[in-house]
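Q: Structure tokens for this one, please.
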Amino acid sequence: MSEFVKVAKVSEVPDPGKQLLEVEDVLVVLFHIDGQFYCIDDVCTHDGGPLGEGRLTGYEIHCPRHGARFDVRDGKALCMPATEDTVAHDVKVEGDDVYVRLNED
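A: Here is the predicted structure, written as tokens:
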């Protein structure tokens, strides 16, 4: 497992909002919702679509290509055409700094 990497300031990501990031050569999306931060891969498991370009509704991100939805809290696929979860990563906040630790799967 990798180490936590500083990726943003709390004040840089609106609530609710999202930010596309690259962490250790992996594209991820950082979400700020109701004062909490979550992070998932920027990949729809249906066809590799860019989740960071999708619409955020509550805790769900909608893939802009075919409408698959994922729970940003744990990466769970919520509807077809996606049948596999996307990878969720660990997030911690220290002061105004947001850190992400990548998970393998």
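A few notes: The chain has a mean pLDDT of 96. The longest strand covers residues 26-33.
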